[in-house]
Design goal:
Nucleotide-diphossugar_trans; Cytidylyl_trans
Length: 245
C-alpha cells in the first residue's frame, strides 16, 4: 500500500495571517509539522500542498517537498484532491491529510491511523483520530471539536458543542477530534464531488459531509494530544511544550 502524507497550508487566515510561517523556537511552524511527520514509519512520500510562493520557498529551504495547488480550492479536501490528481495516485493508495497547524503531532499517531487501513482493508474509506479531553477548559470551547462514536469505533457525530451531554453526571469521558484524516484516493474523489452538507454548513466541520451522505469514518483513540495553533498565543503554548519534550 502506497502511503502519501499531505500537509495543506494556506498563507491567508482571518485570525492569524501567515500562520504556517510563524516561528516556533526559531523554525517556521510548517517545518515542525513536516519534520515530526517524517519520523512516522510507513510513509512513502510527504508533501506540503500550498498555493503560496512564500510557503513553497520556506519548505524548500529546509529540504521539504512541495506541490502547488490551485488558489481556487474551496476547502481543504479540494486542495487534497488537486494535489493527488497532480501526483497521479492510484485509487487504492492511502492519503494522510495532516493539518499544517499541528506542530506537536506525534509520529506514533500517524502510524496508528495507517494501521487502521492495514487491519481493516476495504471496510471503510476514511479514518481519523480522537483524544480523551483532559483539560476542563476544552470541554465547552468551540475551538476544540468534540466527537462521539459507536461500539465499533465508527464516528456518529462531530460538534463544536460538548457531546455527549451528561444530564445527571459530569463523570464521563469526552473525546475531541484531532486534525488528521486518512482516506483512500478513491474516497477523496467521491467526497470532493458531494454537495455541501446541511450539518457541515451549520457547524463548519467538513467531516460531517461524509456522515451526512452515509459514509463511515473509522476512529482510533490516540494516546497523544495534538493541539492546533489558531492564535499567536498558541505559539507560546507550543514553545513551552517543546521545551519540556
Amino acid at each position: 500500500m502506497n502511503v502519501t502524507l499531505l500537509i495543506p497550508a494556506r498563507y491567508g487566515s482571518s485570525r492569524f495571517p501567515g500562520k504556517p510561517l510563524a516561528p516556533i523556537n526559531g523554525k517556521p511552524m510548517i517545518q515542525h509539522v513536516y519534520e515530526r511527520a517524517s519520523l512516522a514509519k510507513g510513509l512513502n512520500h510527504i508533501y506540503v500542498a500550498t498555493d503560496d510562493d512564500r510557503i513553497k520557498a520556506a519548505v524548500e529551504s529546509f529540504g521539504g517537498q512541495v506541490i502547488m495547488t490551485s488558489p481556487e480550492a474551496a476547502s481543504g479536501t479540494d486542495r487534497i484532491e488537486d494535489a493527488i490528481t497532480q501526483l497521479g495516485l492510484e485509487d487504492d493508495d492511502l492519503v494522510i491529510n495532516l493539518q499544517g497547524d499541528q506542530p506537536l503531532i506525534d509520529p506514533i499517531s500517524i502510524e496508528q491511523i495507517i494501521r487502521l487501513f492495514e487491519r481493516h482493508p476495504g471496510e471503510f474509506g476514511m479514518a481519523t483520530l480522537g483524544f480523551e479531553i483532559t483539560e476542563k477548559h476544552e470541554l465547552d470551547d468551540p475551538k476544540h471539536v468534540k466527537m462521539v462514536f459507536d461500539n465499533d469505533f465508527h464516528a456518529l457525530y462531530f460538534s463544536r458543542a460538548r457531546i455527549p451531554f451528561g444530564r445527571d453526571t459530569n463523570e464521563y469521558p469526552v473525546y475531541k477530534h484531532l486534525g488528521i484524516y486518512a482516506y483512500t484516493r478513491q474516497f477523496v474523489s467521491t467526497f470532493a464531488k458531494l454537495p455541501l452538507g446541511r450539518l457541515e454548513d451549520l457547524e463548519k466541520l467538513e467531516q460531517l459531509r461524509a456522515l451526512e451522505y452515509g459514509h463511515k469514518i473509522k476512529v482510533a483513540i490516540s494516546a497523544f494530544d495534538s493541539p492546533e495553533v489558531d492564535t499567536p498565543e498558541d505559539i507560546r503554548i507550543c514553545e513551552a511544550r517543546l521545551a519540556v519534550d
